[in-house]
C-alpha cells in the first residue's frame, strides 16, 4: 500500500486533455492518485490545500498516459531474455546468432531465437531443421516467428518432443513435413505449443528481474495501462509454460507502475472466476481488473494461417483455417458473455472476421446484453459490409498499427487487391467503429509514438486509410479506455480520473508529421507518482 501521497500542482506545460469539455489547459492539480482539477494555474492552485507541492515541468506537452490495449507482458519479459533475431538479414545471420547463444547457454539449456521474420531475410524463407542443427550442435533449438503463430524446431527439439513421421497434426495446427513425413522444422499454430511446452522453464529470479526491466521500459514509452493477455492453462501461444502467466503476473504487480486489464485465455470459464479472486482483480476504482476472455479464431497472414474467404494470392491452394469450429467458438462466447465479460477475439482473415462478427450478432439475439463492447483483436482484412456490421453491433476494433510497418512489403503479393481493405483504419472510423491501439508485443514494438506516426502516414501503404494525429492519439488514450470499459476512470486528463500522464517534448497533434516518431518521452506519471523521468529532463518541485 502507498503511504500518504502529497497534493501536487503540475504547471509550466501545455496540457492536451483528450477531453472535449476542455481540450487544452495550462496546469493540473492532483490529489493522491486522482486528478482534482484541470485548467489555468490559478484555477488549479485554488483546488489545492496549503501544503501542496508544485512541480515545474519545464515546458513540453502533457497528455493522458498511453494505454496499450493488447500486449503479452509475461511473454514479452521472457522474450527479452533470449536470442533476438529481428536484425537478421540472411540464413547465415540467423545461424550466427543461434551459434553465439548456444555457446553461452548453460548445461541442458535450449536455444531460443525470437522475433524471427523470414521476409526480412535475403532468401525470404524459413530455415530447415538441418540448418539449425549446424548452428547449435546437439542442443535442442527453437526459432519463434515474430507473430507468435509458428516456430521452427531443430532435430534435437523434435526428438525431445517425441514427434516423428507417424505423429498426427494436433487439432488447430499442423506440422510441415519432409517427403517421408518426418517434421521439416516449421510447426504452425497449436502444433507450435506442443514443442514449446517441453522447453525447460526460465530461472525465476532472472525472469523476475527481466520483467521489472520490461515494465520500466514500458513506462519510458509513456505507457501507464496494459490490456494484458494471460494464459490460464496450456492453451495459448506459450503452451504449458503459459500456465505460469497468472502466477508470474501476481508476483510482479507490486513492482510495476502500470495497471492491467486482464484478457484471459481459458477453455473453462471457471479459470477466469478463480482469477477474479486474486490480486489481479481490484473491485472499484481504477486498479487492476480481469475484464475479458481472449479467444483465437485464426492465425496470421505471415504464416498463411489466417482464415480467408478466398485463397492467398501467393498460395492458391490455401485459405488458412479456423482454430476452433464455430460451435466451440460460440460455446466460449456464450460462457464469457453471460458472465458479464468482454470477449476479445483474435481475427485476422476476412473469413475469420466475418465468422466472429456473425457469432457476436447471434450472441446478442439469443442473449441480449446492453453495451457489451465485444472486440475484434487486429481486425486485419475486412470489407465494407463487415465494417458496417461492426458499427451496427458496437464491436470495438483493437488494432495494431505497426503491423502495417512490418508487413507492407509483402502484403500485396499475399493478398492481391484485398490489400485495399487491409488494416482499414479510416474506413472503420468513418463508419463509427471505435479503434483502440495496441502493440501485440512482443510481436511489435511498444513504441506508441512510432505507432501514431504509422497511423498518420501508413508508411505509404494504402494511404486512403490514414488517420489524423488527433485520431491516432485517441486510439491510445480515450478510445483505448473505452475499449476496456474504463473511460470513466482513465483515458483523458479530466477531474476524477486516475492521474496517469505522459510529458512529451512536443505534442504529436501540433507538429509536422515527419517529427512524430522522433518525439521524446520526458516523464511518465502513473497514479500520481512519477515512474519515469528522462535523463537530463527538467521538472521538479518548486
How many domains make up the 3D coordinates? Answer: 3
Distance between the termini: 27 Å
Stretches where pLDDT is under 50 for at least 5 consecutive residues are: none
- Major beta sheet summary: 8 strands, parallel
Q: What class do helices, strands and sheet pairing give?
A: alpha/beta
Percent range of helical residues: 25-40%
Which descriptors would you attach to this protein?
542 residues; alpha/beta; Urease, subunit C, domain 1; TIM Barrel; Diaminopimelate Epimerase, Chain A, domain 1; eight-stranded parallel sheet; six-stranded mixed sheet; 17 helices; 30% helix; 23% strand; globular
Structural commentary:
With 542 residues, this protein is of the alpha/beta class. It has 17 helices and 25 strands. It folds into 3 domains: 7-65 and 498-541, Urease, subunit C, domain 1, CATH 2.30.40.10; 68-72 and 203-483, Metal-dependent hydrolases (TIM Barrel, Alpha-Beta Barrel); 82-196, Diaminopimelate Epimerase, Chain A, domain 1. The strands form 4 sheets. An 8-stranded parallel β-sheet has the order 8-15-16-17-18-19-20-21. A 6-stranded mixed β-sheet has the order 3-2-7-22-23-24, with helices on one face. α4 links the parallel β10 and β11 (141-145). The protein is globular and about 80 Å long.
Amino acid at each position: 500500500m502507498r503511504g500518504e501521497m502529497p497534493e501536487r500542482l503540475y504547471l509550466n506545460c501545455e496540457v492536451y486533455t483528450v477531453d472535449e469539455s476542455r481540450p487544452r489547459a495550462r496546469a493540473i492539480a492532483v490529489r493522491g492518485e486522482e486528478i482534482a482539477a484541470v485548467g489555468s494555474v490559478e484555477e488549479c492552485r485554488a483546488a489545492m490545500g496549503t501544503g501542496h507541492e508544485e512541480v515545474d515541468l519545464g515546458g513540453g506537452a502533457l497528455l493522458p498516459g498511453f494505454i496499450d490495449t493488447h500486449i503479452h507482458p509475461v511473454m514479452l519479459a521472457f522474450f527479452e531474455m533470449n536470442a533476438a533475431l529481428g536484425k537478421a538479414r540472411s540464413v547465415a545471420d540467423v545461424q550466427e546468432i543461434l551459434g553465439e547463444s548456444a555457446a553461452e547457454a548453460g548445461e541442458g539449456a535450449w536455444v531460443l531465437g525470437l522475433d524471427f521474420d523470414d521476409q526480412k531475410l535475403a532468401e525470404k524463407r524459413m530455415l530447415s531443421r538441418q540448418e539449425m542443427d549446424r548452428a547449435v550442435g546437439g542442443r535442442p533449438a527453437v526459432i519463434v516467428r515474430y507473430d507468435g503463430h509458428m516456430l521452427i524446431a531443430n532435430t534435437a527439439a523434435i526428438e525431445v518432443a517425441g514427434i516423428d513421421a507417424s505423429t498426427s497434426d494436433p487439432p488447430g495446427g499442423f506440422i510441415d513435413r519432409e517427403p517421408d513425413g518426418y517434421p521439416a522444422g516449421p510447426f504452425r499454430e497449436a502444433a507450435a505449443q506442443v514443442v514449446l511446452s517441453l522447453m525447460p522453464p526460465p530461472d525465476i529470479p532472472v525472469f523476475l528481474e527481466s520483467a521489472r526491466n520490461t515494465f520500466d521500459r514500458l513506462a519510458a514509452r509513456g505507457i501507464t495501462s496494459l490490456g494484458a493477455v494471460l494464459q490460464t492453462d496450456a492453451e495459448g501461444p506459450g503452451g504449458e509454460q503459459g500456465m505460469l502467466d497468472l502466477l508470474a503476473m501476481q508476483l510482479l504487480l507490486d513492482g510495476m507502475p502500470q495497471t492491467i486489464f486482464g484478457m484471459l485465455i481459458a477453455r473453462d470459464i471457471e479459470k477466469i472466476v478463480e482469477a477474479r479472486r486474486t490480486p489481479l482483480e481490484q473491485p472499484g476504482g481504477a486498479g487492476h481488473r480481469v475484464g475479458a476472455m481472449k479467444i483465437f479464431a485464426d492465425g496470421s497472414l505471415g504464416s498463411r494461417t489466417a482464415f480467408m474467404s478466398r485463397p492467398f494470392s501467393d498460395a492458391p491452394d490455401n485459405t488458412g483455417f479456423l482454430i476452433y469450429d464455430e460451435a466451440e467458438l460460440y460455446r466460449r462466447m456464450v460462457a464469457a458473455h453471460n458472465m458479464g465479460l468482454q470477449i476479445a477475439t483474435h481475427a485476422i482473415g476476412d473469413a475469420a472476421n466475418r465468422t466472429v462478427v456473425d457469432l457476436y450478432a447471434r450472441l446478442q439475439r439469443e442473449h441480449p446484453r446492453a453495451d457489451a463492447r465485444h472486440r475484434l483483436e487486429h481486425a486485419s482484412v475486412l470489407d465494407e459490409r463487415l465494417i458496417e456490421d461492426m458499427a451496427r453491433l458496437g464491436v470495438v476494433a483493437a488494432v495494431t498499427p505497426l503491423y502495417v510497418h512490418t508487413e507492407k512489403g509483402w502484403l500485396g503479393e499475399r493478398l492481391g487487391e484485398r490489400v485495399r481493405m487491409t488494416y482499414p483504419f479510416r474506413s472503420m472510423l468513418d463508419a463509427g467503429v471505435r479503434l483502440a491501439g495496441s502493440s501485440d508485443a512482443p510481436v511489435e514494438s511498444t513504441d506508441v509514438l512510432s505507432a501514431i506516426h504509422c497511423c498518420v502516414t501508413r508508411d505509404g501503404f494504402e494511404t486512403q486509410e490514414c488517420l489524423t494525429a488527433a485520431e491516432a492519439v485517441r486510439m491510445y488514450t480515450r478510445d483505448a479506455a473505452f475499449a476496456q470499459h474504463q473511460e470513466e476512470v482513465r483515458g483523458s486528463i479530466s477531474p476524477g480520473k486516475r492521474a496517469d500522464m505522459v510529458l512529451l517534448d512536443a505534442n504529436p497533434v501540433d507538429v509536422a508529421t515527419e517529427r512524430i516518431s522522433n518525439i521524446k518521452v520526458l516523464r511518465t506519471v502513473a497514479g500520481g507518482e512519477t515512474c519515469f523521468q528522462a535523463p537530463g529532463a527538467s521538472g521538479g518541485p518548486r
